[in-house]
Amino acid sequence: MPIVYVLSTINASTLDAARWVSAIGILAHLSLASSFLGTILIAVIAEYIYLTKHDKDWYDKARMFSVVSTIFFGVGAAFGTLVEFGLVTIWSNFITIIGSAIVLPFYLELFAFLTEVILLPLYVFTWGKVRNGWVHWVIGLAAAFGGYWSAYNILAVMASLSMRPPGMIVQNLAASNETIAGLTSYLVTWAKPTDAWNMFWWGANVFIFHGILAAAILTWSVIGAIYLYGYVREHRPDQVKVLKIIIPGVAIMTAIEGFILGHLQGELVLQFDPLKLAAIEGMFWKGLKVDPLTSFFAYGTFNHAFWGYYSWPANVRPPLAPFDFLPIFYLGFMVTLGVLLGVWSGGLSLWYLFNGFFNRFNWAKVIASFLERTGPYAMPLFAALAAIGGAVTAESGRVPFILVESSPNPNGGPPTVTGVPVYEGGLINPNLSLPGWLVALIIIVEVAMPALAVYMVYLYTKPRGVKPTQVIEY
Amino acid sequence: MVSPVVVAVALIAWAFSVHLPLVYTVLGLGWLLPTLELIGYRSGKRVYIDIAHGLSNYLIAVYAIGGVFGTIVTVFLAGLLPVFTNIAGALLWPVWGIAIVFGVAIALPFIGFYYRSFNRLSPMKHIAVGYAMAITLTVIPAMFRLVFAFINYPAGVAITPSSTSNTGFTLSVNLTKALGNPTYPPLLSSTLLGAIAMTSILISSIHGWRYTSSRSEYHELGHRIGNTMGLIFGILYSIFAAWYLYTIYQYSPTVAWSIFGHPPSYLQSAFYELYRPTFNLSWMLYMNIALGAIILVLLVISIKITSKPIEALKLVLTPMLMDSAEVMNGLAHAPYAIVPPVTAAEALIKAYGLSFALNVAKWLTISQLLTPQINALLSLVSIQPGLLVGSLIFFAFFNALLLYVIYAALSWRRSSA
Q: Where are the alpha helices (DSSP H) in B101-216?
């Protein structure tokens, strides 16, 4: 491979520790961000239904979900700051790349963040205080828009890490024995200034909406499961009202995710990072070999040959240790469990929406009973593992690079895969030191914060006895 | 066309101007709330505890909005001064790390726990939680102020010539020596005292305003306590701020020249061109002293008489003084992002020659650290200025909305279970 690498002097255990700390932190932040996106969406939909049908149940749900979303937002935003400082301290050279190239989504993210942080409290604190309900709903809608816009920008950055946007130029200055401030030898720029908008090119949009939908599916699956658990035991009318919205919502989103966005995303991986494709599909061979199933999904034929994982040199291949986790996370978690989630949510959707029709058949009752009894456990499990599988596949599959691009190999071998490496000379802070106790402490904090958010939501939503109200004047 | 330096400085200054009063308030509340509780339990007067409980309602919201503006500051720094932020991240990573772990990961749960455990824990346990919260909140400025002290006077930094670096040199830092920065202790102390003073005055203003209508013991006490604390801590703040200015005069010639309007007496005339500040901000120093004097007079009057105009003036002028002092301190560094020490300049000239020393000084300026030739945002804005104009309109709108939300939060009567 005609690629020159900066020799790493930072030891491998520090690099691995940095990756674990960042991976767990990002997954934890994603869980909080997903929870916010899902719950604020339910809040505005519930309020819309209340305003059109004047059903008090929906008012209560809307108000409750608006507060729940605020809890997730508050902890998630704080956690986002933690992740941001993770970039500054652990992957410090990424900061230069932000400034020289990928700043635009971060800049626009500020406006999205402002929208969220100012409108969300306004939405929550003005229940019953704004005379015109539609005005209040618009405030909520704008707050939700801020959340989704925020996700849009951050996912645009994540998309660029896996697929180098058109017009982006990555230079390795090591070839000319140069560095930037002695910290990194990689310079990332644009061919022309307006190419900065290419951070939002169509491929990035596929990645973005794939991620946003995954977030909504995950949260709605968990909420659907909670309501299903209650409905199986209590059979309250307000529970079935929610289920009739949530469960079909999960089914529709899962179908779009799998059949449209997932397929397009797969085609992009094939184009931008065939090595990642080989790693996640489990194509563990050297040289070209026909893979009928992948060939069918990618090209509509059964005889297309693909370069196997071992066709590339070891120093550019994504790691598989301690076990072949990438195919397990991709094929096992994301694809298989995603399909099962579609089966559960699709079956329950048919049962709730066309109950009058299916209730006549005993077989339908048996299936529905099975889905209802297992759904509270199966749906969140499937959704969570599928989401984790997707995130790990996307982010670990591109390692050891960011801003990945592949180009035809002039020597006739597998396509050349290039990018900015995560190791020293690339992204990692060359001064970093991560002793075991520090790694353990950071991971405890990373896990504790989402747990705290869930506990706060539990405190807020748990049934309470009637207490006398103490009025505080201030 | 507006200069990139002006754009960068204006955006960062704006974000700081919103961020700082909010985080000052959080820091001040962090120390005041358990203290009010302690006084309440010791004296047996429930109203102190009610005031603390009432104020704690706003702690998380102010913390969250302040935190968001902190993120905005960081993004501006990364986007507009990428090489500076990269160097700062690489060299001072333990400082950032400790600040963020305490500031977010530990302080936030403490705030939530403190708020939720009112009337659920025994009094002394709850007060202990409150002070633990205050200590963790204090770690944030303790770390960030070290960075501020670092840009005044980069103590502990070693500069090594490098033929491969685009800057011509590389930097390393001895963190132990960095902690010994002479501008750090007065800066941190005045920050803490100023935060408590400002928050106390804001509390007294709001309660005083309410007291003129309700005449309740609750507001009378909040007004009185706020005024007393504001006066005591305001005077202490003035003393420590003066100490800070003294250390600045001794160690950071550009900042001192900008604030006092003339070069420090020890600065040789040969160095005048090197250390000449971009702005003469002596008028801001006089304005700040005048503002401080006016607030002092208002506090004294407010102790004797409660009237809405006086309380409103205190409410507006106190954050204004805080912002003005911070902006003055920040802008006084220009043209530098990090002011090179005189001793370092002399040592570099002696060791590596004048041109190397001048190159180092050049790379410590804002205009050079902006790296306009590789700055994607500045390049884009220069071609599409509408992006910048739109941003400013958007920012202005949301600032106004923020003020409205704060007003609404303070004016609505709240009830809690």
A: 107-116, 123-152, 175-179, 184-214
